[in-house]
Each structure stands twice: as structure tokens, then as C-alpha cells.
Task: structure prediction
Amino acid sequence: MIPHSKVVLEKGDLASVTNILRSGLLTQGKYVSALEAKAASFIGVNHAVAVSSGTAALHLSLLSLGIGHGCEVIIPSYVCTALLNAVNYVRAKPVLVDIDPATYNITIEGIKEAITKRTRAIIVPHMFGLPADIDSIVSLGIPVIEDCAHSVGAKFRGRYAGSFGPLSIFSFYATKMLGAGEGGMVLSNDRNLIETVRDLREYDEKETYAIRYNYKLTDIQAALCEGLLKNLPSFIEKRKEIAGIYDNGLNDVGARVPAVPGGREHVYYRYVVPFEDPLPFMEEMGERGIECRRPVFKPLHRYLQLSEYPMTDNAWEKAVSIPIYPSLKTEEVRLIVDAIKTILESASNRSHLTI
Result:
């Protein structure tokens, strides 16, 4: 079976973890500090704080902005529940907006329609590795948290995603661009915001009491992340190479390949293709030993039993994510392309699989 996602580790990563285990110092320490400095330098911001997950990063980012009960936070519906959870953690009101069907990203038009006098922040995920129209969104003057869980290394007009808003977050979940198992990070140029995040990250040995959290990252995870960050440019090039093969192969059968608007650099965390009815396609791919998945399990408005999100519904009903990761071998990529082409070319006699 060719899996949908796969962890990428190098020999040096294993050596770093072994050294930490031998030292006996397993929790937050010098490796975490080193990762924070290197991640901030890579993205082009001044400060970074490593935390235990991407959700923790979102939670602390909202708290650092003073967001709580009575505040509204704009988020897209076509995204995982981490965003919804973080907004609910601070007792704010999530305001859902629809997406651009070509890029799967939140749109400036949708955001403008959703803004009220209670809007205090916008969370902008750069979906599947493609930056949103972040310049326009930031220009609205409302604090923006860039969610770079899918997009570490992606660029908008020559600048890295994560360097535009007052805050940005990473996720180090196992299948992400920097997949260390678990973990996350908050980045910012604002020292006050970052010091608030740093204070809230851990609760012990504080002069005064306030509700704080156990959101620390371990040195083991940090060491893995540091190695992945070092190799990220080559990993991105491999992802682009695979995406190019997919583009060429799918164009031959008239499939819609991922859109990349001008001025944006896609890192292809996911390669997403729409189908009229994706379930038979995914089943047939599975029978051929290739795992494909929905890129978003369920949109937020469906959990909340809301309606009138047509572009999100369309994406959820049709989008399929096919394998793309740096350790995918060329012969496996060719096998995937051939399987897709065979299924699509034979689909003309089966209306349930019309792309």
C-alpha cells in the first residue's frame, strides 16, 4: 500500500534524538530554544515560542490578543476543527466564511461581509500549502493569525507565509511539513505578544497566579523539527517535482489540477483534485494499493448545523487528496498517475465517476 501520508526522517534526526535520550534531559531545554531561533530566522520574524501543538499555538495566540467572551473571530468553514476549538477555548464567537473554490482559501470578499463591530481577529489558514491573499486581508486592519500548519516554506510575493500578520502559527503534527509527531509554534515581530505567549505556555515558578497552561514542547520533538527545517528546501523541491508529474498526467485526461495564482509559491502539502463523486474513485485507488483521502474530514458549518456555504460544501463533496510527500519514489508517483488515468479513462462508461 502506498499511504496517503508518511513521516520523513533522516539518519541525523535519529542521532539527535539518541543523544538527547542519553543525556537524560528530555523536556523543554536548549534544543527548544535553538529551534525557536532558527524558525524565526527562516520565516523572517523576530520571535518564536515553541508549544505542544498547533491547537495550543492558536489558543495562546488568541489569548495574547486579549480575545475572549463577546469577541468574534472570523475563520473559514473548510478547515479542521482545531480553529473552532481554539476560538471556543477563549469563549469567543466563531464566525464562519466560505472559500475560493479554485484555491480552497478564505477570501477577502467573504471576510468583509463577515466583519462586525465585535470582530477582533481573523484566522487565515494557507490551505494545502498555497498562500491565501494575505496582503489584502492584513490591510483590513484587524489582527490576523496566519495558520501555517500546511504551508511552512510557502511564499506570497517573495515573502514567507507567516511573516505578514501580527501572529502566525505552525503545527509539527506527524504528517505536516515539519512532522515531529506533535508540537507547534507561535511566531511574531511583536515582543509583547510573544512574551504573553511565552508566559502562558507554562505554569510553574511564577511570581503571581494566573491561569496558565502546560503547553511545552520537548527537546526530542524540537531536535526532530530542527532537522526537518534544515531539509525543508529540498523537501519542498521534491514536492514540487511530484506535483509537476501529477499536473502533466492529469492534464492529459482533462482533470482540474491545483490552481496557483500569480505571486504565490505552492509547497504542495496536499495535492487536491475535485471529482463529481470521490468515493468510488478512492475505493478503486485503494483496491490498486494507493490510499487517497478527503483533505478536510468535515467542514465546520456541518458540525454546527449551519447552511449557505456552497463553495465549502462543493469542496467537501468533491475534493480528493492523493499522496504527495518527499519520500515518495518516482516509480510510485508514476504508478499513482497511471492508476488515476486508467480509472478516469474508463469512467466515461460510469456516470458516478465523472471529473
Q: What stands out?
A: Residues 11-227 form a domain with the Aspartate Aminotransferase; domain 2 fold (CATH 3.40.640.10). The radius of gyration is 21 Å. The chain has a mean pLDDT of 94.
